[in-house]
Amino acid sequence: MPQGYTELPGELVRALGEKNVLTALEDVLPYGFDGTAALKQRPLAVVFVHDAAQVSAVLKLARTHRVPVVTRGSGTGLSGGSVPVKNAVVLCLVKMDRILEVDTANLTLRAEAGAITQKIFDAAEAVGLFYPPDPGSMKISTIGGNVAENSGGLRGLKYGVTRDYVMGLEVVLADGSICWLGSKCVKDVAGYNLRDLFIGSEGTLGVVTQVLLKLLPKPAARQTLLATFARMDAAAETVSAIIAAKIIPCTLEFLDRKTIQCVEDFAKVGLPRDAEAILLIETDGHPAAVADEAAKVEELCRAHGATSVRRAADAAESAQLATARRSAFSALARLRPTTILEDVTVPRSELAGMIREVEAIAAKHRLNIATFGHFGDGNLHPTILTDERDTEEMHRVELAFADIVEATLARGGTITGEHGVGLAKKGFLRKQLGDASHDLLKIVKRSLDPEGLLNPGKIFDL
């Protein structure tokens, strides 16, 4: 091991204190993987920081010794974004978890990067405000991780993704410089929009340490509907019809037959086990508008072949129906030792065909694949149920994954709608972007991180 790698852990202890630096094998191993199946690597050390100044100190030491640094929050990522490279320092931000300000006059919230997403939602709700992004991991994922991956969630159709709510960022650059990007101003066009450059950059350009978020007034009313379909095509046609009617629901989610059956076994919320697809639809806003939209949505569902439409009677039933979608991953994970949750997005017009193609790919490679996701914005989650200890089956999983990505691109889609590129999908990125755009990413990376020490090997290889 090069001298810098042996010297750095001691220098980190001197800079941060012994309790904030882990180096023993049994201590660092849990930080060698994230939520992505079959990806792991032991780090050199794990450090816990408490403010931007400490982050800066770590990056300066790492640069001096030319040791890579991988930033980590709760480790819930699904593309290998926080999996360390060999002999990397894992920079863990979970102790930077404070909500620093809720500004009701300007409808903003400022938090440290390690703050849990659910905590941010709750802090906004406590003062009658609303933070819309809701990734499936929101009860444990950090806001810094959400920014790094530009996370989405169930409410993405109407409200957008994390990028749409970030007004400002504190970022520590590779050389240890601390920058603030953005402001509370609704209009601010001073200089390049560098803030957006770091959103979705997966820790490859800098370390986000604080986030200034835009909040919205809390919707006064909500109505949840569950529509059942005997044909997947009818469910997809219904989605197109709802959008064409100029109705943008808060959520427009779907589950396929396999997922429905697993969720019902798991959550027991009364889902129709014989349906080929269900749509979970939520409309929100002014009570009169919600009532009108819900009536129109129900009419459209029935007109396009829904065998039944169930309206939640109250908030408790709405929460129960939402559980059907939010528990999909957990329900499926009970079936096999390894659950691989994929993430591709196609234009809405391609949804039904893409789902059929996933079914054909599953049959071709003799795999069990269930599909659920955000039908309203075309974001699908084909979920492969497998066992990573079975080498032959995992080879078939890789072939199936490649086929799914190829089919997605052929339909004008994108290789990731909300999970990021990370390690898992970087091999497909050039095909989506083209050579010039792919090379442009590398130019930006070299400009901000010339030594290539920040989360190396993610998104692309230098």
Describe this structure in words.
Strands 12, 13, 14, 15, 16, 17, 18 and 19 form an 8-stranded antiparallel sheet that branches. The protein has a 5-stranded antiparallel sheet with strand order 5-6-10-8-9. The mean pLDDT is 95. It starts with a helix and ends in a 14-residue tail after the last helix. It folds into 4 domains: 3-92, Uridine Diphospho-n-acetylenolpyruvylglucosamine Reductase, domain 2; 99-217, Uridine Diphospho-n-acetylenolpyruvylglucosamine Reductase, domain 3 (2-Layer Sandwich); 221-329, Alpha-Beta Plaits (2-Layer Sandwich), CATH 3.30.70.2190; 335-446, Alpha-Beta Plaits, CATH 3.30.70.2740. The protein is built from 16 helices and 19 strands. With 462 residues, the protein is of the alpha+beta class.
Write down the overall mean pLDDT. 95
Query: What is the CATH first-level class name of the largest domain?
Result: Alpha Beta
- Class computed from helices, strands and strand pairing: alpha+beta
Distance between the termini: 22 Å
Short key terms for the protein model shown above:
alpha+beta, Uridine Diphospho-n-acetylenolpyruvylglucosamine Reductase, domain 3, Alpha-Beta Plaits, five-stranded antiparallel beta sheet, 21% strand, Uridine Diphospho-n-acetylenolpyruvylglucosamine Reductase, domain 2, 462 residues, eight-stranded antiparallel beta sheet, 16 helices, 4 domains
Concise synopsis of the structure shown:
By secondary structure, the chain is an alpha+beta fold. It has helices at residues 3-16, 25-28, 52-65, 117-125, 143-149, 156-159, 194-198, 232-244, 257-267, 287-303, 315-326, 328-333, 351-364, 391-410, 426-433, 435-448, and strands spanning 21-22, 45-48, 69-72, 89-92, 99-103, 108-112, 129-130, 166-172, 178-182, 207-214, 216-217, 221-229, 251-256, 277-285, 306-311, 338-341, 344-345, 368-374, 379-386.
